[in-house]
Model the fold of this input.
Amino acid sequence: MTSFSLRDPLPPPVPEAQMAEVSAEFEIVLGKRQIAGVMFVASVLLAVFSAVSYIAGEAVSPRKASAIERPAPGATVPPAPAPVVIEAPKPAAPPAPLFAEPARGGLYLQMGALDKGMAAILAEGLRTHGFDAFVAPGPSEKIFRVLIGPLADPQAYRRVKDSIDDLGLNAFAKKIEQ
Done:
């Protein structure tokens, strides 16, 4: 093995026999300027790619029809159609309150006994499916019942129960008597 001193400006060359022993590993060191240059090139390429994609998308998308069509000179213009009168919708009956007491002697379909938040969510979900659902007090201060009803008769109960079963939910009848 050869040695060199600190006075030598460069280390002595490595003989070719020892070159085979030198590993192929190397390290790339980038300074701030090189990193900034790489980032600039990447940003320019991203901008170009985005612009080309936008232009290609605009070329492929269908064109909107012109909003105003001008008649040819000397052509007769048909009369404008009569304006359409749109009546304001009649106000709907106010929705039933979400939290209520069940009526005495009424037949209800109980969907569950849950905490207040979950009971409200379940009742709102049932209302979106067209059921007259509401939240009633439960057996304790922290538990609330989700009820559908009151149902007029056993046939109404059967129709609602079948609809609930079609949704994949479980329920049971509960006659409220106080």
Notes: DSSP finds four helices and four strands in the chain. The helical segments are 16-19, 32-60, 116-128, 154-167.
